[in-house]
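Hello forum,

I keep getting stuck at the same step: I have a sequence, I want structure tokens, and every attempt I make locally crashes halfway through. Rather than fight my setup again tonight, could one of you with a working pipeline run this one for me? It's a single chain of 88 residues.
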Amino acid sequence: MNKGLKAQMRKCSISIASNIAEGFGRRSNKDFRRFIDIAIGSLFELQTQLEICKRLDYLNEKQFSGYFEQTREIERMIVAFRKTLKNN
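Reply #2:
Ran it on my machine without issues. Output:
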């Protein structure tokens, strides 16, 4: 796998968790939701990078499907959690 792509995927993965943690430390749900949205954006970047890996034959279809489905499950969990945050 390309070193730059691998590094970018790691950065996105770390960014997802880091933004959720940073948002949790904010004083309002509004700020928390904003950081959740940033985390979702990083997750979408990761999904795109997985697609690139598949197209460049760094991942076979089975590997891609497994990883992509894991990211979709994380996406569903984050979106569901975001919906629980009130607007204050």
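The mean pLDDT is 94. If your local run keeps crashing, start a new thread with the error log.
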